[in-house]
Amino acid sequence: MVRIERACFTDPWPHDAFERLLGEPAFLVAERAGAVVGFVVADRTPNHGRDIGHIKDLAVHPDARGEGIGRTLLRSALARLRATDVAVARLEVREGNDPARSLYADEGFDPIRRVGGYYPDGEDALVLVVDLAAWAGGDTE
User: Fold this and answer.
1) Is 119 a catalytic residue?
2) Which residue, 48, 51, 71, 74, has fewest beta-carbon neighbours within 10 Å?
3) Residue 138, in any domain of the structure
4) Which entry of 67, 92, 95, 123 is annotated as an active-site residue?
């Protein structure tokens, strides 16, 4: 996973970040021929009786993109979060990451705000949310 993270992001997570999140309800990997080709990490946070899910990381190795792996991972993570009574899921995405933004829009995520200079290189992030009770992709696990 660390290799995929480094291949996908200019500011990759360190190895210990993955270790800390191993027990989360939606820490999932996609494999092809016994090798990990993608992963998603999501957790949940109590919030006044309406838990919030957070898609912390989603990555697919560049050689495996365009095969629907990212969509499958995202849908599986959202389904798991919803199964644990999470009401809303959120994530941050680089404003310039058009492929990811398109995927998230297809899955019902809506932008709620822009965070200026969120990433170490100064790029802005968009914060996106999806209401899991209304989410249409929830039949996938």
Assistant:
1) no
2) 48
3) no
4) 92
